[in-house]
Write a structure and sequence with these properties.
The chain is mainly α. The longest helix has 20 residues. The chain is globular and about 30 Å long.
């Protein structure tokens, strides 16, 4: 888990959005990770505030699920 509370607070909105979007699309963490081309641990760690998503991962998510972003 991220030790820096400010970092956790900063990434929490993205983490919450990712989890809500995944659930809305009825995807498991494994299925979402497969669709994004990342390891399952990446999706799980972002949702659990254990890691900050890289810019590359954020862009993959936005590109893949752009219809959800509007």
């Amino acid at each position: 888990m991220l030790r820096d509370e400010k970092t956790r607070e900063r990434i929490k909105p993205f983490s919450d959005m990712l989890k809500a979007m995944r659930q809305r699309l009825n995807l498991t963490q494994r299925k979402m990770s497969d669709e994004l081309g990342v390891v399952e641990r990446t999706v799980r760690a972002i949702e659990n505030l254990e890691t900050e998503p890289s810019l590359e991962t954020q862009n993959k998510i936005k590109k893949k699920y752009q219809e959800v972003f509007g």
